[in-house]
User: Fold these one by one.
Assistant:
Number 1:
Amino acid sequence: MSLHDITARIAKAETNAGRLAGSTKLIAVSKVQPNERVEAVLSEGHRCFGENRVQEAAGKWPGFKEQFSGIDLHLIGPLQTNKARQAMELFNTIHSVDRPKLAKTLARLAQDIGQCPDLFIQVNTGEEKQKAGIMPADADAFIAECRELDLPIQGLMAIPPVDEEPSLHFALLAKIAERNGLQGLSMGMSSDFEQAIALGATHVRVGSAIFGERIKPAE
Ligand SMILES: *Cc1c(COP(=O)(O)O)cnc(C)c1O
């Protein structure tokens, strides 16, 4: 696979779903990939990337930002409150807002810094104990709480359980978003992004299908 193959498959999935061409944003997930692979994708003209750890991103992206303009960086992994300020300064979008304490910290820092990245609320659609995300039953109240805090919530994000049919989880996420009037849907990875697009994904997060298998395991 390559960037070109993936963009072609996204375009086809959009057409099949009767959606506008270009209505899905491709986040190239570059976590733990060697810099040469990331640089190759940047050189092909792609500018939208995802990382799951603040520390790792802070090590690699300031350098790329000096070399390439227009980089659009997305945090897709869990965020600790003590890294929130650094994340807000580094990322254009944060996909992992998942608890009241983090929402309050982001709101306070947004006042302080004078700006806030676009935000997605992560929903634990599979209700998995080890996974981040607000439980589906608590999602409506949490979305309301974030709005009261004036946070720029663009949509919802989910990572389905590995051993379940992802479409059920994509459909659930889309339903929660719709009843809360949210447009953004961050869902779909290398193995299931076409299904996610069929169910309305606005952001797909694709790593290994673009860059190849990750050499080191990601957290
Ligand atoms: C690693 C990761 C991805 C990309 O996974 P692939 O299977 O390599 O496409 C997507 N979303 C999140 C949250 C991730 O951590």
Note: Residues 174 and 185 are 7 Å apart (CA to CA).
Number 2:
Amino acid sequence: MSLVLHVDAAAWRAHQDSVVAGDPGIVPVAKGNGYGFGLPRLAGEVRRLGLDRLAVGTAEEVALVRGSADEHGVRTGGAEHPGFPGDVVVLTPWRPGDAVAEAALADPGVITTLSRVEDVAAVAKAHPGARVILEALTSMRRYGMRPDEFEAAVAAAEGLEIVGWTIHLPMIGEHLGEATDLATTALSACTVPLWVSHLSPDDLDRLRQTFHVEVRHRVGTELWLGAHDALHYRASVQDVHDVTAAERVGYWQRRAGRRHHRLAIVSGGTANGVAMQAPTAAANGRQVVQTLANGVMEAGRMALSPYSAGGRKLFFAEPPHMQASLLWVPDSVDVGDELEVTMRATTATPDRTVVE
Ligand SMILES: *Cc1c(COP(=O)(O)O)cnc(C)c1O
């Protein structure tokens, strides 16, 4: 038995359908761990949605959505992996010397992101006819060119097919003004569609009213994970041991606490992303307090686990192993029980996904 992601197919797909219906011009994003679903599965959903383009994070991921290789780079293909036939945008900007990104340029369905004038010139020289998106630097200060470089970038793109400008905004704050300013400069250098991320529906509407080009909206989290109730990670209880007070358990031979007498071995561990935490943004006071509280618990060797039984979170007996975790459980928990697991979708790798 394993750590399994259970997907209520009807509810999950109804949610996807409603997001797509409300966002004409949507570009689904399928990258990384595929938001817990894996990239091949998301590519299949994009096909089901009838959309003709999607965005991936890296050049390596092109083969995964195309169905031509698995995550280890091993060649696949055939009826089992029909792959996504439409346009695939690579979000990470191209850099010289990356053989995979170089090879992707040969796929006429791949759209490469360029974020430096020198890279635009290099791609124009080596791959005339390639399809590219030019990236504008935003207040994110991640990738992109400054507005005073836009004209030079367009000039350097001679011989390339510019399919758009990309504007990737921060998650928080008010950014319509910034997007409008960047788009104004960009479109005066070259009139092509705008590809934007993280703008509210109202801001998108306003952008579409202001500019007479297509505005394409990249969406991952809301599309794939918005139907919370449709998604459940569950792990099975593989074994249970009654232990006496102060008995030692686990790799680290910690003593059982006074209130702990039932140890459960459950499926799921570090390989699945159990208890993986991103550094929190701790945006509000309550989150700061929670983070501190978790730290205190860890210092006292009592870390709250993401597993729960009867609606209550269980404590780890020690840090998770590769594919198993040791938990302190109440008497009611027995071998064969299924426990609900709270997973962070962007770091989750279930052993199996069941779409039912
Ligand atoms: C990952 C990514 C997205 C999708 O972000 P979500 O918050 O998951 O919707 C959009 N745009 C860019 C450029 C990205 O890298």
Note: Residues 285-299 form the longest helix (15 residues).
Number 3:
Amino acid sequence: MPGLRAPSDYSGEPPRHPALKINAKQPFNAEPPRAALVKSYVTPIDMFYKRNHGPVPIVDNINSYRVSIGGLVKEPKQLSMDEIRSLPKYEVMATLQCAGNRRTAMSKQKTVRGVGWDVSAIGNGLWGGAKLADVLELIGIPKLTATTPLGAKHVEFVSVDRCKEENGGPYKASIPLRQATNPEADVLLAYEMNGEVLNRDHGYPLRVVVPGVIGARSVKWLDSINIVEEECQGFFMQKDYKMFPPSINWDNIVWSERRPQMDFPVQSAICSLEDVDFVKQGRITVNGYAVSGGGRGIERVDVSTDGGKTWVEAERYQRSGSQYVPEVNGDKWAWVLFKVEIDVSDRAEIVVKAVDSAAGVQPATVEEIWNLRGILNTSWHRVRVTNSLRAPVSQL
Ligand SMILES: Nc1nc2c(c(=O)[nH]1)N[C@H]1C(S)=C(S)[C@@H](COP(=O)(O)O)O[C@H]1N2
Ligand SMILES: [Mo]
């Protein structure tokens, strides 16, 4: 019996929390309600967004599961779960964000292609597993040092799930070898999430977690790892998840002109309010998240109640009990939650924007970053509130 296999239909899908908002059933794509995200710094597993491209793979016998490591290596190897578990275990707090997070808002500007997500295609997890750098060392690939040549090799991750985009072939992606062999990049082969055995939706028995990088590169249900000369040629690296300028449409697109998106830029969203919400006049608390890619911290979160003319700074926090100082005591791959008390009068447009530790800021509007695949909508997040039930929503 094979260790890990892909079913050809959706009859064997795992159970899921009924509160998830389903954006597509087959393959299963769902996100929690916004308000659920800010209830805790670490996102509960059942409230973590699920982004699949095919039926969820099945493990018949975990003892026969092996991950193959091959490609440009002297001695290809097959590792069992026991062998991976015998390597030092690391726990990395990292936020996973789908590049399509907030796509629905981008499609209001002009139609884009892809699953429609609200602001919750994101979650913060505590991932437990072996460092990829340690695994690669087992097959004779040394860790990154100052003298490592700038070689252009890549590490490709291949799953077993059947995706229509790959013509029924498996999901795959790659990262540069320099990142894979750098222990400080914290790339994991994770077998635990939030202290529990990884569940099926999130990649059981083994997934890659590439912190600070769009979720698409964190391959689930890992089957093989290949050292390759060029970056992975799969659909999701070459014909998807690339950031094009607003002028590019489906008639003039040349996919090879742009590189696959890796790090994600600074992002934030309000989670305690829906896009249009009725609130009592007076003081309210606004909560949400802010995060940046590449290990950059969140330097500031600004909130406005007048559509962006004036701003107040929100309080940022990660784990409770200690003050968050980016690059000093923060979880560098994780989001910060923010909280601010504001006064709302009759009606207001509440806006949030974050600033990362490289002074990266979010664009004010969607126009300037609109792209046909609808990725990386990091425009200021705006919600409108009113306390007058008589005001028609269209007039807000
Ligand atoms: N094998 C496999 N890995 C995958 C995917 C997939 O469909 N198949 N989806 C990717 C995308 S686009 C995202 S955003 C994340 C989602 O991870 P999650 O479902 O654990 O939240 O997994 C990535 N890894
Ligand atoms: Mo994604």
Note: The longest helix spans residues 103-109.
Number 4:
Amino acid sequence: MKSRRDFIKISTAGAGAAALGLSPLKWGGLENLNAANDIQAVSDEDMTPYPTYCEVCFWKCAGWTYVDKKGEIRKIIGNKEDPHCNGRLCPRGTGGVGMYNDEDRLKTPLIRRFKENGDAYFEKVSWDEALDYTAKKLKVIADEHGPECVALFNHGSGGKFFGNFLKAFGSPNITAPSFAQCRGPRETAWIATFGEAVGSPEPLDIRDTECLVLIGSHIGENMHNGQVQEMSAAIDRGATIITVDPRLSTAASKSKYWLPIKPATDLALLMAWIHVAIYEDIYNKEYVEQYAYGFDELKEHVKNMTPEWAYGITTIKPDIIRKTAREMANAAPAVIIHPGRHVTWYGDDTQRIRAVAILNALFGSWGNRGGFYMKESFHLPKMKIPPYPKPTKSWRDAFPGQFNLASLALSSGICDATIPTADRSCSFKAWIVSGTNLPLTLPNMKNTEEAMNHLDFMVVIDTMPMEVTSYADVVLPECTYLERYDLIRTSPHREPYIALRMPAVEPKYDSKPAWWIAKKLADKMGLGDYFPYDNITDLLDWQLKKVGSSLEEMQRIGIKKFDRENGGLYFQKGEDIEFNTPTGKIELFSNEIAAEGFDAMPVYTAHPEPPEGFYRLIYGRAPMHTFSRTANNHNLWDLKKENSVWINPKVADLWDLKKDQLIWLKNQDGVVSSFPIKVRVTERIRWDSVYMVHGFGHSNKKLSRAHGHGSNDSELITKVMVDPIMGGTGMRGNFVTFLTEKQEMEAES
Ligand SMILES: Nc1nc2c(c(=O)[nH]1)N[C@H]1C(S)=C(S)[C@@H](COP(=O)(O)OP(=O)(O)OC[C@H]3O[C@@H](n4cnc5c(=O)[nH]c(N)nc54)[C@H](O)[C@@H]3O)O[C@H]1N2
Ligand SMILES: Nc1nc2c(c(=O)[nH]1)N[C@H]1C(S)=C(S)[C@@H](COP(=O)(O)OP(=O)(O)OC[C@H]3O[C@@H](n4cnc5c(=O)[nH]c(N)nc54)[C@H](O)[C@@H]3O)O[C@H]1N2
Ligand code: SF4
Ligand SMILES: [Mo]
């Protein structure tokens, strides 16, 4: 049996005293950092630790950045007091210093200019010139079209400052890909069922669970730290893990049950589980009677959704469906049917996650130990600013009567509404893009390109010359998270915590923090009152002093815990609870969804199948990379330079494909991958699908390591299955076939 460390690949608390790259732990070859950095070991006494929270992914683990006497960053380790990481960072967090050291970083502000022959190029300019230019362009657009025609796309810490800027400017159109390309359907489903969103980190009580059901969630490859640790401990304790995945994921390989489901059919399995729970009378009656609304309707609705019915759809045998449902019931309420995170799969995602929510409700896991705890976050006071101007238009105007249950703006919707059409009342003229690599992040790259080509103006704030920067009129180089202050982290957890990020080193090159960029831009546009501080340290110290701490204290301790104020972690037995839904109950039947013209309870409908000779393209994560953002990070590049395409041996045989052979993928719309990808022949994937890790196949040559390595799933995702309830972009309805030669590819494309 493999040891637990093999599975979690997260460093031990504190990671000893070794400097970055000299870690005694040999997880996955991180010892290579040593050779790459050629750094001598330094003892902790000879270094200064600066508190931070990680920005390599959005789990935001708190840690310490150690700097030696020469001012060099030597290591980043987890903060032991932080419940997001318990003192242990994942390989990406440990390797985060590669973002700071990357010689390909954006170094100065750039403005797009044109030569006499019309060719575009970037001119290096001062901050003053870049911000003056940006302010001028935005003013012209506001005067001609209204400020609402400017949208902000953001992901990550800097987004808050640009969001404040945009609202002050007069536009409500602030969006992040973490909604319509990620968690949106989940949050919509949870709000409809339990009256609140799941949020991040997910309040899963894996620590005390007896049964964890993962439907697609590939924890272990998805390295969300605290979850990986708690799941690892749950496995060691003998908790039952049930994984539903067409691929033998890392999690599936550690599970008691692996259900290699036919992709796109999970909703049928979920409905059959609901059927078994109700008709075998193994649901939590007391809980359902007290808290739920619509049980009788649900019972009638699932009457014929038997395991035998689901077998014909999912390929999962009826006895396995029954057995796994009973496992859940035996563990209940200490059972978690994981709500998922990246859930934009097939366009019926809100309904699929509704079924997940309903199943959790039937077993009474919401609000019970070993199920979902009641999260709490800490609220910091805000400095007084003038009221924001009232916008008269919003992105919703582009979609009259549609997506009313979307609780946040749709990035894909704003992208679509940028392409002018006769029937659209709203079209966007300018984008501010901070920390999101839109061409690789939004599905249908051609559509994203077309939208960007229609813009009058686009400013990109990034750390790296990612694909998105090459479409910008102005590029503003942000310094990395290791070189800046940001807002205090107040993410929810079992108890309220705050965490400080402060610079460990000066910003390299001519890069600046987001707060500074947004404030300076606001100053230039006469909106300075919305940033009522000279330096962000003034804001942080003011906020912290109001709650009995100070910047000085947080610089010493990094993270601070407060007492819970909103009751216990779990519901008390028989406690009277009013849920934030129209009925005040957990809604198994949703009048709200029905009022929008959709099914009040989930209904399975079949999705298109791959044409002859094509296979469904599915994708996921690799433990040592985050999306497309880490592909050029030399520490992580050393661990994994490219993705591969997983192909079942039967299929490989049929096509005469060999291990490590380079092939091109062509999708159902004739789009061929720009770069070839290596074949990985493996039983771990069903024959009807192929799998690749997202984030590779970079086309920007300025990324000297990542360019041309592996393939980019986003360019093959031309068919988008939009969720009619909230506008999420289902991305797994694309099919690919194999091209073995470039000539063939050129002839056919
Ligand atoms: N095809 C496909 N598309 C997907 C997904 C998929 O699996 N496949 N996943 C979806 C999901 S779940 C999500 S959440 C989204 C994620 O989408 P994104 O957040 O867009 O992810 P990245 O592609 O990593 O782009 C992040 C950008 O931020 C920049 N960056 C990094 N650090 C900083 C910083 O400190 N400041 C600034 N200003 N910029 C910084 C990076 O250089 C990069 O350009 O993608 C979604 N889209
Ligand atoms: N290392 C690392 N960790 C990350 C990230 C990262 O970039 N790198 N990103 C973070 C973010 S923002 C997100 S949203 C999460 C995403 O990660 P998760 O939410 O855990 O997973 P998904 O992307 O939904 O799904 C990927 C899995 O779904 C399986 N799958 C594909 N089709 C189907 C299907 O039809 N049915 C079922 N049951 N399974 C299917 C795939 O085989 C794969 O194992 O990861 C987070 N963690
Ligand atoms: S899970 Fe890893 S990459 Fe994400 S915040 Fe934590 S250490 Fe950083
Ligand atoms: Mo995500």
Note: The domain at 615-748 is CATH 2.40.40.20 (Barwin-like endoglucanases).
